[in-house]
């Protein structure tokens, strides 16, 4: 069977903190981690706790020893799966870790070393058996991490900064836009990332009603995401980075309301795979 041009699999869909338990079984409790396959190549977006099961799956598959991890930013919920990523500890693997908002602040290597250091963590990144490379860029640059793959990037409105991505391969386009605020509507750079995309994966932590009590936290509502997708002419919208306080019943209500506002809207769940 021929591979789809692109496939997207969700390994972690929450923001802020993992929330495992009986009330989050269907949507999942791991934090942000999305795997995108471009033909036989794999790119990973964010290294939340969903990175741990993804790493186990990659080791079991045994075919992909060269992996790129693109971080939206280095807040802990998007990074603390990295020490538990099994390919990090396997000889013969090459892992490149990218970030677009840290170049003037010490870089992504410095951020990883701070997290994996005493008294926060028992071992340092130097114990890794894989070949680890750190790649800093400035949000707004275009990247070509692999043959035939283009990544357009843009800065996002989030405390400390964050980076949004548009991945283009084989005539398909996926936008990954998290974490960001849209208090004054979608910024032009965000609309450019999402323009006519086959799939837009976007931070929809709150509803409009919840936004006033979370002003300045750097997240969006699902209603704002619907408006962005409509304005950008995106084909498919996927709501992502769910509030840990939103249990399965709450998420079902969001799915119903978002589907009514924009038919076909997808609400990300752990294990969901979308072929493009």
Question: How do the strands and helices of this protein lay out in sequence?
Answer:
Elements: E1 6-12, E2 33-38, E3 41-45, H1 51-61, E4 66-71, E5 94-99, H2 107-115, E6 131-136, E7 142-146, E8 149-156, E9 162-169, E10 172-177, H3 188-194, E11 199-203, H4 222-232, E12 237-240, H5 248-261, E13 266-267, E14 273-275
Overview of this protein structure:
The chain is an alpha/beta fold. It has one domain: Metallo-beta-lactamase, Chain A, CATH 3.60.15. It is built from five helices and 14 strands. The strands form two sheets. It has a seven-stranded mixed sheet with strand order 6-5-4-3-2-1-14. Strand 12, helix 5 and strand 13 form a beta-alpha-beta unit. Helix 3 packs across helix 4. It starts with 5 loop residues before the first strand and ends with a strand. The model has no long low-confidence stretch (mean pLDDT 95).
